[in-house]
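Re: folding output
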Amino acid sequence: WQTENGVLLPSLQSALPFLDLHGTPRLEFHQSVFDELREKLLERVSAIALEGKVEERYKKLEDLLEKSFSLVKMPSIQPVVMCVMKHLPKVPEKKLKLVMADKDLYKACAVEVKRQIWQDNQALFGDEVSPLLKQYILEKENILFSNDISVLHNFFSPSPKTRRQGEVVQKLTQMIGKNVKLYDMVLQFLRTLFLRTRNVHYCTLRAELLMSLHDLEISEICTVDPCHKFTWCLDACIREKFVDNKRARELQGFLDGVKKGQEQVLGDLSMILCDPFAINTLALSTIRHLQDLVGQDTLPRESPDLLLLLRMLSLGQGAWDMIDSQVFKEPKMEAELITKFLPMLMSFVVDDHTFNVDQKLPSEEKGPIPYPSTIPEAFTKFLQENRIACEIGLYYILHITKQRNKNAFLRLLPALVETFSDLAFSDIFLHLLTGNLTLLGDEFSLEEFCTSLFDGFFLTACSRKENVHRHVLRLLLHLHHKVAPAKLESLQKALEPTKQSGEAVKELYNQLTEKLELRKPSPAEATETPSMELPLPTVPTPASR
């Protein structure tokens, strides 16, 4: 039996006793020969998939699959069967169904085979994608609530290319491959989730996924996605954090080029523009343009570049409404935004300039000119009723905070208590604001500043919005040593978590309490301190000698 079923090589028969002398079992020998042959067969299968005419090579592989598939559950043969299936562009339907029905086989097969299963089975594909999308949202939220508060490293610091290297984007890119049907399914998932949750991070993923496929030069998908060139151009702007004139014209060309009957593409373009990274770039560019217009004595309505930025902001901010209503047309821009609100912001810039000039002039009898402390009622009204005005207003406040302009910040802060759909209490704004406030760290020792910031703004929403509670605690963890002790004590009481508070709030509050405990002097130190100071006046000085 051994002779009949062994390796039929005449030269081998005389060599086998040597193995016996070394105590090597025949099983081990046959196993190593088997492994070697399997490796050779796997190499051969991969080679067949690349050689000869297309029909011939696939015919060979199909024949091989037919012969070997019955052994697919044998662990030793399974890799060969899987390798044959991996190299077949179209695995027979019957075989795919058998693989799909068996959990272990499904798990073992290559992503190339899974793609063929997924494209006709949306529910199964959804089960694979869903945990990745949850992980992506969680990662974004973790960055926004990170305990590291910094102006230099914030949510918007990583470049688009760095972000696309993230685990989720890479996995999704691999799962999609060159399959347009799977790409469309993922986009459909993202649209549905965005509609259901209003979470703008799904818009970021929409753009990142397209650009990840662009990086890999997968033209099969990029050429059929009508947003590809627009997203590519916008991606370059996001990288620079500014929309320059040349790119502005390109972006305008794409928007103006939406033909009649193709308006549905506006839904996708609005989702690309709703990405927080795009909104951030557009808003920063708008603030920069407004400052330039002040220097040029030009009104906002006379700047085509500024009007285009507003048009794109408006399209991005209207993404949810457009996809929800399925009415694909650009939202109408309110004239008052351009004729009243933006000139009002420019007047704030002028106020700062005139105040700074006044400070440098020699003071006369009438005394120093105070900084304007009132804000026009219209400004507050715009922030409450107009979404675009609110977004630009918030970015202007971030801008003055970054410039350490305490006067302007305290002047405009009251307007933030009530804003359009509570945008001033959104995670992205509070993440950026807390980062910028670290530049005003020294002001936290002043009662007036702390009362305006905490009592006048943060604490108005802490009890009803847990995210605000978390951001205030993040800020205090970072700056508690700058705050006056009495104020710190009252804040500690005000920020104490309730029974309804989530774990994250309780954890942050405990961290803050621990830090404050460490700062308190121990009772022994407190009693010793005065006794050390008593003899100081009697120490003889060089002069008294």
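--- second protein (sequence, then structure) ---
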Amino acid sequence: MCSLTEKDRPIVQLLLNTGTCPRCILRFCHVGTQTLYRHPYKDLMKELEEFLRNNQEKEDRVCFDVVDPPCKRIRLEHTEGPDDPNHNGRLQQIPLVNDANTAVENSAVKVCNVCLGILQEFCETDFVKRVCQKVHSANYQFTSFVFSVSLPPQLSVREHAAWLLVKQEMGNLGLSLSKDDIVQLKEAFKWIIHPQLSEELGVPADGKSLFEVSVVFAHPETDGECHFLATACPDCFKPAKNKQSVFTRMAVLKALEKIKEEDFLKHFPCPPNSPKNLCDALEIQCNNGAIFVAGRYNKYSRNLPQTPWIIDGERKLDSSVEELISEHLMAEFKADSFNFSSSGREDVDVRTLGNGRPFAIELVNPRRIHFTSEEMKGLQQTINNSSDKIQVRDLQLVTRSAIGRMKEGEEEKTKTYSALIWIDKAIQKEDIAFLDDIKELKLDQKTPLRVLHRRPLAVRCRIIHTMKSEYIDEHHFRLHLKTQAGTYIKEFVHGDFGRTKPNIGSLLNRTADILELDVESVDVDWPPTLDN
């Protein structure tokens, strides 16, 4: 154990005497050699025993460089805890155990008083196999993994107490120990676990991997150990949404930074007591990062909403564009859920023709992530064969960042429409011909009455770039429009009780209404066109 030096000897002895495991001792001695932590637990105990048995004479020290003079005897006396009459804000005093065998024996039979067993039982092969069994049973596709750990917040309190103890001993030697010098528990745990998981799973550990294996630890026996901090530092513990307890790890760390040492020592034993039980691994979970699928859809039905149409909890129509596409993607990717987005939306009675409307679907926690281009074509065909109400094209896997292109410049995009218009008074072809000559017509559109329940009241300036009329009969004509994205076409036709100015009715000095509307193109060059 060449990473330890003579100045570490009293710290090793002190922590062993108080019930700290060998891996936590390495952490407090600022040992950063990852391979040392991977040594079998029993071997580490033996190595610490040999280290303590070494006398301090130069000729007997093979692995250690003498950095400081021999340490002083630790003059500490044992007391029982914070309820002891003598516990008045001072560090508890620990008797020196000069016999290394006794120190190691005492530590070997106890659950570590700092890590609560995280760096003991949970670093063994049995636990690694338990994690891997969970991963394999979940049936995910992955080529690497990232391992995450959630630790009980009271571990931070115990580590703080142990740090105060070690800091005092270091001070006795004329040395200092910053909290930042201690190797983080999570970091040490991952040093040990990563190689074992990687070997069992057959893929490398990668901090940027989208496949996450997570373990949530708890220790019910010591759950209440954080509570005194809420009295000492109440401003650090604020109720938060989606948090079952105010005693989060970050809140506890914040309080530990704020609380004075003497106040901490009045409420918590230093060193921390040895627990009776190990931590529990409450949850072992797997999660794949989201996969994104994009394409364009055509909608041929005038009785199909883009997204589920539900009013006051009651479903109005059986299906939607979103559901007709996503149900097949969900089944093939074996995802938990999805999020649908698109470049604008059409009303339930509006068709989307031409090249279709760009859309993207985020598939949350998919089990399957690898699809060839041929498989994506097959999936597209499956969707198209399932319904005559919609068709999709250019179906492909995309990145999260690429989806931003669908939303970029949304107000500046143009869209073309075809509207079938009814006029109350008879018209001739020449009555509507002037519409073809109008360019860049500016509109002021108040939020339409039909969407006022879900959109804020505002006046929006929109532009009709061009119009082309197509006479049908005395009361009907078709109008082809190229407009700024976000223009309310129905309201431009009938005026929405004067909320859109000008409008077709006011331009023709007649009452106008819209009978049919089709989206003919959405001018967004995304996603890339494929050979379908």
